[in-house]
Design a protein that fits this description.
With about 675 residues, this protein is mainly β. Among the domains are: about 300 residues; about 80 residues, Elongation Factor Tu (Ef-tu), domain 3, CATH 2.40.30. It is about 5% helix and about 30% strand. The strands form seven sheets. The protein has a 21-stranded parallel sheet that branches. A hairpin with a 2-residue loop joins strand 26 and strand 27. The longest helix has 17 residues.
Length: about 675
């Protein structure tokens, strides 16, 4: 019986395997595409054997676009592969000097098809993913941002305005071991499109391994609908943003992103073409939100999206590095990660249910791109001006109230008039409503007595303050159960945070959900978040005085070091932290084991007052033998190793690196312009 079961299982596997097809692309050993419309085509694309002669031979296609275009049919665009198939691409390695065309019109391919943009890859199944693979996918690099450059298959877009790769309507798709370069940051080019414009999202169960995407307007663009697994991916020098999950439609993301070794660098900077400089920013190519650009490394709209990042890097982005400020009611985890040189915040987290940071090293030098950077041409930054934006907050961090946002409104007596409300579907008679701009005790307990329409309700008693009908409206919420609370847990352990600016951590209570459905963050008085847990241990917080930032209050106006807390955030558990060179404000050294008068004394640490932005380059976050942070921490359950993977001692060092750890990250400018030479074959 067991033998029969084994044979049945083997037969099932064979049938399942036989149902999928392997496809091959190689520019030197392949040939043109054979089809019923092109009987003179040389290859069927279903073998890796080199083309010799004849038609309809078992050999590779000689162009990746032949996988979704039959040039013999005018205006044809559609995949020849099916869901569950595998595509193996070879011959475009760095050593060949060849760059393939992954989209765009050239060489007679895609006649009658504007832009020749890749259609969404056919969906696979949970047991048989559709795979688009570089031939070296099995050895393309582990823990290498973007994959091993020598093993990636190199592609570009043959004409401007194209989507290079697309999974917007795909599920169970893997993309691996590819380098896609938009060559010059086309104003409308997208490296990988994940959204589905004008309809609900479907992109889910997508795996991205060993990918480098650079030189586009946006590296990855669009909302998602499920799990994205992202390993060893580098989004580099994309002219508007790195990963932008806001495509401007009514369908925000759902699902989750789970990432290991994701790097997003130089977003908001357009790549020069051809590449000449070590850091290939075009002259005047860096743009921020005040100079016709955008610049977030990672950004979202108001959305419910779980994100887990391990060993991520965010650097030299012309707005924020990682911006989840608009995320709500989600779980956001950032561990073992680094950020530096970003013009806005380093790591920004909104009103989440769970927010966790540990073992991160964050250099908050938001005016770094104001000055020359070795490797980039003079004038790269002439269009930049919004340095240290958003009031110079380094790492905003908030938590969520159970109160649900209704909208903005005015009140005169018991009459409430909304500006963007939908009262008829958001509240019912007897519901407790209140403005979160003031303590709950001031306005709590007032209920809805009459609903006129979406913009007008009557409440049970007059508000103490007459808001009138002009000026700024206040922010109304519906309070389920009549009393607000919070179940959020915010954890910051073993972080090392260095830099200048107005505030190290600015955040506090805020709304996550919208009454009637949806998500929106609106800051709320702390009284709306009773029950929140903010856990803060084993962290180093070092302030820097930037004497050359002029009158910009976002970087301290040249005279002030940053404050520690702002916006109402107050740790509920705070101990074993080291604070140094910060403004004397409330919330410092409240723990019995906190350290406030001891310089952390990192290896090669410059003066805590800088006279040039470059003084914070090449910063080494390892502790010197004289540091008071050595053995000054407390063992935390579940945290066994530091950022470099070295086991914590008992007691551990404070900060992200154990004293005596293997060399930690030394942060300098990110080089990465790749000159492949050659042309599109």
């Amino acid at each position: 019986m067991r033998r029969l079961l084994q044979l049945a299982a083997l037969l099932f596997l064979c049938v399942g395997w036989a149902s999928a097809t392997n496809w091959y692309v190689n520019p030197t050993t392949g040939g043109t595409r054979y089809s019923a419309s092109n009987t003179s085509g040389q290859c069927n694309g279903q073998s890796n054997s080199a083309y010799v002669s004849g038609t309809n031979q078992a050999c590779p296609y000689n162009d990746a676009r032949l996988l979704f275009n039959d040039p013999s049919v005018y205006g044809a665009l559609g995949w020849v592969i099916s869901g569950g198939d595998t595509v193996l691409i070879s011959g475009y390695e760095q050593s060949t000097g060849l760059v393939g065309a992954i989209a765009g019109n050239s060489g007679g391919i895609c006649p009658g098809v504007a832009y020749c943009a890749m259609p969404s890859v056919p969906s696979g199944t949970s047991g048989a993913h559709t795979r688009i693979l570089g031939a070296n996918y099995a050895s393309c690099g582990t823990h290498v941002y973007g994959g091993d450059p020598a093993k990636l298959e190199n592609f570009t877009v043959a004409s401007s305005g194209s989507v290079a790769a697309a999974v917007d309507a795909s599920q169970y798709v893997d993309l691996e071991c590819l380098h896609i370069d938009g060559r010059g940051g086309s104003l409308v080019g997208i490296g990988l499109f994940t959204g589905n414009i004008g309809s609900p999202r479907t992109a889910a169960n997508i795996t991205l391994n060993n990918l480098t995407i650079q030189g586009f307007n946006t590296g990855i663009s669009g909302s998602i609908a499920g799990l994205f697994t992202v390993n060893d991916v580098w989004l580099y020098m994309n002219g508007s943003s790195g990963w932008n999950l806001d495509d401007g439609t009514a369908y925000p993301s759902t699902g989750s992103i789970v990432s290991s070794y994701l790097a997003i660098d130089w977003s908001g900077s357009r790549e020069e073409d051809p590449i000449v400089h070590a850091i290939p920013v075009a002259n005047g190519g860096s743009h921020d939100d005040l100079g016709g650009g955008y610049g977030d490394g990672f950004g979202t709209p108001a959305t419910h999206l779980d994100v887990s990042l391990d060993h991520a890097r965010f650097s030299y982005n012309t707005q924020d590095g990682f911006d989840m400020t608009h995320g709500s009611d989600s779980t956001v985890i950032v561990t073992n990660s680094v950020a530096f040189g970003n013009m806005g915040g380093s790591i920004k987290i909104g009103a989440e249910n769970i927010a966790t940071r540990y073992n991160n090293t964050l250099m908050n030098n938001c005016q770094r791109m104001h000055d020359p950077i070795t490797g980039a041409q003079t004038g790269y930054n002439t269009n930049l001006s919004d340095f240290c934006r958003a009031a110079g907050d380094q790492t905003p961090l908030s938590f969520m109230t159970t109160a649900q946002f209704i909208g903005s409104a005015y009140a005169v007596g018991t009459a409430v008039t909304g500006t963007d409300t939908h009262f008829t579907t958001q509240v019912s008679i007897g519901d407790v409503v209140a403005p979160v701009d003031f303590p709950f005790s001031t306005y709590g307990g007032i209920t809805v007595t009459h609903i006129t329409d979406d913009l007008h309700i009557t409440v049970s008693s007059s508000y103490p303050t007459n808001w009138g009908s002009s000026g700024s409206p206040l922010h109304f919420v519906y309070i389920p159960g009549g009393t607000p609370s919070s179940s959020s847990v915010v954890t910051v352990y073993h972080d090392t945070n260095i830099g200048y600016g107005a505030t190290v951590i600015d955040g506090g209570c805020g709304t996550g959900t919208v009454a009637g459905g949806g998500y929106n963050f609106v800051g709320a008085d702390p009284s709306y978040c009773p029950g929140v847990q903010v856990l803060f241990k084993n962290n180093i917080m070092l302030g820097i005085l930037n004497t050359v930032c002029g009158a910009n209050p976002g970087c301290g106006s040249g005279t002030a070091v940053p404050g520690m807390w702002a916006g109402g955030i107050t740790p509920t558990t705070q101990d074993y932290n080291l604070y140094y060179n910060l403004q004397s404000n409330s919330g410092l050294c409240v723990g019995a084991h906190d350290i406030c008068a001891s310089n952390p004394l990192f290896v090669s640490q410059p003066a805590n007052s800088i006279t040039a932005e470059s003084q914070l380059d090449n910063y080494n976050f390892n502790l010197s033998s004289s540091s008071g942070a050595i053995a000054a921490g407390v063992t935390i359950a579940g945290q066994t190793a530091d950022q470099a993977g070295v086991s914590w001692a008992s007691p551990p060092s404070i900060g992200a690196l154990q004293y005596g750890s293997s060399p930690g990250p030394t942060y300098t400018v990110i080089l990465g312009g790749k000159v492949y030479g050659g042309t599109i074959p």
